[in-house]
Design brief:
The chain is globular and about 45 Å long. α5 crosses α6. With 404 residues, it is α/β, with parallel strands linked by helices. Helix content is 37%, strand content 10%. The relative contact order is 0.13. The longest helix has 21 residues.
Amino acid sequence: MSDDHRNRGVPAEVVEPAAPFISSPPDWLDGRPRIGIHTSIAGEASRALDTAARIGCTALQIFSASPRMWPRPHQRRIPTAVAARFRARRAALRLGPVAVHANYLINLASPDPRQWANSVAAFADEIIRASQLGADYLIVHPGSARDAGIARGIVNVAEAVFRASAEARSVPELRDAMPHSAAAPDPGTDHSAPPPASSVRILFENTAGQGTGLASEFSHLRDMLDACRSRGVSPGPGVCLDTAHLLAAGFEIRTPEGLDRTLAEAHAAFGLDHVCVIHCNDSKSPLGSRTDRHEHIGRGHIGREAFARILNHPLLRGPNRAFLAETPIDRPGDDRRNVRALWSLLGLIPPRSIPTLRGSARSLPRPFGVPRRPSVSSSRAKSRRPVHRARRASSRRTRTRSPR
């Protein structure tokens, strides 16, 4: 109460405290483990959702554009109708979290001013496209500092994320691109504060240690998270751990003792609460090789037994932590086989039911140049032609060819 109110005897106005903001859990958070794989968006982005559900995924990762070229002006945004179909189909299939992997050309740590500026602009577009799709995470490789050194590279990464996030928040249509309640919950978020303009959370992925690239050591990831936090980047970035990269960088994750030691070091550096996605990739490269070469689950240097420990480790099991494979597709069905391998190592059977929805992949317009596949019913009808009719036609042709 102010002095004027005390002197005049007038009661001060009572201000009720603001009701705390409680973010509701996303619809896909149904208690099932979140198992998925990187899925192609060829044709249209929503087709990736049907592919993921068909092969037994509860989560997935996609690219929002071509990963190995700078987007052209007309590719910087996703058409509104395409984004709406993606969000509607995802809600029907109850898939999540959805992670978008950023363009491989982006180098947020680059000391070259021109390349750094191009990377910031491209990363801002990645944030906007991920928000349009309603994605939960945007995964990015921090990049290489080259001769500038690790410390300078970390500063460049944090400044790039800050500027790209600010640029993305300035886009008017981004406010309505995704409902705030659809975002994956963050154990470290203060739920009494209102949500940010974009609820896509950026995740820094650890690397194999090739060349002068950042993030092969946990201290790099810790310093990048701290630098982003000091700049007020919101939501605060997290971490994506890749198993093949860990092994190549020298982390022994194949033995029970080595896995426990690796997780303890990660928790001491940045906290396992910030690890939102684990890329489950076997490795063609041995321990400490510092080369990034992915292999099918159980066929590389990590092995099925080690993956079983990783998937079932009590520090890694969580209702919203996703295990996503980025394994190669050498022959048709490899994606389904790798997803089934992850479910099998969890001791579970992959989900099989896919809800039908008008506007699914079967009813979406075909991309230009892709022929329509014949329906199953028409192919069966052709195969059911009476045998006696075929024999009569064959005998007539034989009689026609025979000489008089």
